[in-house]
Sequence to fold (264 residues):
Amino acid sequence: MQKLIDFDAIFDEKLSEYMQQNAGKYSEKQWENLIPKLYRQFGDITIPSVGNTPKGYYAAMTDEELADSLRRHVEEGVPVSDFLCRELETRDCPDALIELLGGEDEELLLFAVNLAGANTRAFPAYFKILQTSGDGELKDAVTEQLKAGADAAKDRALRLYQEGTEQDLMLEILSRCKERDDRVYELLLNAFKTSGEIPMHASYLAAYGDVRALPVLLEVIDRDDINYLEFQELKFAIEALGGEYTRERDFTSDPYYREIHGMD
Fold:
């Protein structure tokens, strides 16, 4: 079992010494720009107590050792260094990382999701997280990765939507599909027409980018019963699809308008 090294603590100690030696030499803004550069340089400096550089220490590990180190860092409360994360990222979502996605520790899962990224090998685990997790931050992170690979996630998202599972998240994922698919378009359009959540579902139509939605959007934006927030999102969606809405509207009595413009 590999020893856990708190490289960030070692860097902080060396940085403190460096800052004392160079007191008054740099402004606060200059230090903000310099510290990330020093951290990157630190990755190539041999640490006598370790017998290797931070980068080299992790590069010498197997995929399994890297994933196990990440797990132990989180479980034992030892800060996870950027050098460990970057090395795991270079391994292109190995099996050992996917195994971590099947765990229950939400902090560890968040690390694993961010490191696996939009690699389609992780998608089955991502969908399982969406179905079982109650952690909003984790589900948001998973959704972002699935949106980045929406075409590969499409069929599973369509199936889960039809099953009634996390329907809003499934629509959000589907709205990022690049390949045109009438199933996706009809689903997004129907949700816009029937959900009552105009701003959110208008944004999904805008993201999907199918100009066939323009007549429906133009019809809804012209209604007198929409509020200012709905109007703004509809106008954005229409313009995103290449359309235009020019009718003058008066929202000065709308509570959202008055709040946004400081009229109350």
Summary: The chain has a mean pLDDT of 95.
